[in-house]
Write a structure and sequence with these properties.
The structure is a single chain. The chain is mainly α and 113 residues long. It is 50% helix and 0% strand. The chain has one domain: Hypothetical protein af1432 (Orthogonal Bundle).
């Protein structure tokens, strides 16, 4: 329930009111099987869909006390595999373009990794 708890904790801070929907909905899934509200597709705020992809990538690629990083290649493959069910396919596509440096014409972050 951490998305709802996060929203609850931040609610008293008036300057953060505009991001509360993003916090609450970042564990919703594009197929409607997420939580806490079971939102689906475009019912999920755009910034929540962005945060979902970024947070998931970070979670998979960061070492955790209970497990080591799964690695960038695994994370990229998971984003692709779950595109259209867990993740918004347009967000995944944009995220991977940025990750690969295509948007800014930079050297690929993945290849430097």
């Amino acid at each position: 329930m951490h998305p709802a708890k996060g929203e609850e904790i931040l609610r008293p801070i008036k300057q953060l009111a505009c991001i509360l929907p993003m916090i609450r909905s970042h564990h919703e899934r594009i197929d409607g099987k997420g939580y806490p509200d079971g939102l689906k597709g475009n019912e999920i705020p755009l910034l929540s869909r962005v945060l979902c992809v970024a947070d998931s990538f970070d979670s998979m690629t960061a070492d955790r006390p209970y497990r080591p990083s799964t690695g960038k290649e695994y994370a990229i493959n998971e984003l692709k595999r779950c595109s259209g069910t867990q993740f918004d396919p347009e967000i995944v596509g944009a995220f991977l373009k940025v990750l690969e440096g295509e948007v800014y014409g930079e050297e690929s972050w993945v290849s430097r990794g």
